[in-house]
Amino acid sequence: MISVLLADDHALVRTGFKLMLDAQPDLSVVGEAADGEQAVELSRRLRPDVVLMDLHMPGMDGVRATELITTELPGVRVLALSTFDLDENVVAALRAGADGFLPKDVSPEELIEGVRVVHRGESAVAPRLLTRLIGTFVRTSPPRTAPAELSGLTDREREILVLIARGRSNAEIAAGLAVSPSTVKNHVTSLFAKLGVRDRAQAVIIAYEAALVHPGE
Fold this sequence. Notes:
By secondary structure, this protein is α/β, with parallel strands linked by helices. It contains ten helices and five strands. The protein is 51% helix and 13% strand.
């Protein structure tokens, strides 16, 4: 059973999500938070598998709450939600450790699958949407120094990082490089460890900020 914490300042939204998720045999809503502070407090107490985190809440917002949760509770996954597709807070949440992003108007099926995906340790952001979001907002952010960990990547790992940043799935990377999907998965695991990132979302942000890829490529 996947335990889920709902964080949204609108009670009706929480009620709708709860009804939707509790109807699934493998999902259970274990708590509800009306702001970021409550989300952090309940995450510490309940240790949910996944937090559905609205980014726009009064007081402590979802970005700060995400940062605290992912730093203190690495076993808790955060799926960020926003009313807007192109929202600078989405990239901020991904930088803070969110495992994915979905717009609030997604279908029930997409939301349910998103919870399952982040629980598996994968990113619940569609690759093309991810690169569009990051390409838009990393481009307008102040330049950052490339992390020293990039120098520790092998040539193949760097190549795969670039392909991830261009929205390629593991299967697509494997086909393009003429290697097995398991080989790509091993390379991805290794480069994530070297970069100190949790998922593809954070890896893509590093690739853009290090100018390994550029918006529009």
